Amino acid sequence: MHVQPYSVKVYYEVQLEAILRAGFDEFEPDITSEHFPAWRLGVHTIDALLIRFDDELTPQQALLRLEAVGFRGGTPLEVATLGKDFPHLQERAALVAPLPVWSRDDGGPLIVVLDYEGRRRRVKLASQHAVFSRHSSYVAFDVRQTRV
To answer: What letter would DSSP give residue 93?
Structure first.
């Protein structure tokens, strides 16, 4: 497991859609604060940890490994804020927000992923059961640092 920290200031009361409009070239319309609500209030500066595993994993498998070492998965608002503040990260590797999960009426559980394709910074939905390459980074936070 490879870990890189980045300090990020998250405004939990800002709408996810506002962060997406301000920092990305395109995003799926189902990525909203209604579908992925913030879980805390206020403004918090926290260390986002980019974690790369040495093998390919689903987000569920990654979460189990993260929790085993005292980390929690990043939420779409936290990951979008990180991507907005550090745009070069998304150009290197997909950034995966393994929590929370949302489901469309016609499908299985979905998570949010930031990627870079054709010189465009995108935010998209991906299956929670998808396998991400070892070049992707899961965004996590130390549980002790992010208690409500």
So the answer is: S
Q: Decide if pLDDT at 147 tops 80.
A: no
Q: Does domain 2-145 have CATH number 3.10.100?
A: yes
CA atoms within 13 A on the CB side of 118: 3
Block residue for tokens 């940890």: 49
In the prediction, which pLDDT does 146 show?
A: 59
For residue 37, say if its preceding peptide bond is cis, omega within 30 degrees of 0.
Answer: no
Say if residue 104 is exposed, middle or buried (CB neighbours under 10 Å; 0-12, 13-18, 19+): exposed
Mean pLDDT of 124-148: 83
Alpha-carbon distance 27 to 47, whole Å? 25
